[in-house]
Design brief:
Blueprint lengths: L5 H11 L5 H22 L8 H16 L3 H8 L4 H13 L20 H6 L13 H9 L1
Helix pairs in contact: 2-3
Length: 144
């Protein structure tokens, strides 16, 4: 059996599951590379299997680095709205023979790991200003 290349696998995946754009899968592959490099730096270990939650953390970090405050706009354009969408793409890549999995890996590993709003919008939200006391409050405090 001839091994299928990444480009050919993407053609097949996008044809059979048009929910996610081709660029999304390229991003996911790059996010996996980023994740394994980060793990290698932190743990000093050789590249090993990445779990669903580890990959999702890598996706979060990589997306914030790559797209900054535009992450949600890019993901919305790609049809990615939750961790479950990332899981669906991972399992599409597994089914195509591009990503591997262990017996412990499950689509459930990608459910409700983090909220996209918290992960991708909050880091760029302006800090809430300190509450400014009105002049009447200040006057009332001075006269007490």
């Amino acid at each position: 059996m001839q091994k299928i290349g990444f480009a050919e696998a993407l053609d097949s995946i996008v044809a059979s599951d048009p929910r996610y754009q081709r660029d999304t899968y390229v991003f996911l592959r790059d996010a996996l590379d980023f994740t394994t490099k980060q793990q290698k730096k932190v743990k000093g270990a050789t590249v090993r299997h990445v779990t669903g939650p580890e990959l999702l953390d890598g996706v979060r970090q990589y997306a914030l680095n790559e797209f900054g405050p535009m992450v949600m706009t890019v993901f919305d354009n790609w049809g990615v709205h939750s961790c479950e969408d990332i899981g669906n793409m991972v399992f599409n890549l597994i089914d195509a023979g591009i990503f591997g999995k262990t017996e412990e890996d499950s689509i459930e590993d990608f459910k409700n790991v983090y909220d996209f709003e918290e992960a991708f919008v909050k880091p760029f939200a302006p800090a809430k200003p300190a509450t400014v006391k009105s002049s009447t409050e200040v006057s009332a405090q001075k006269s007490v």
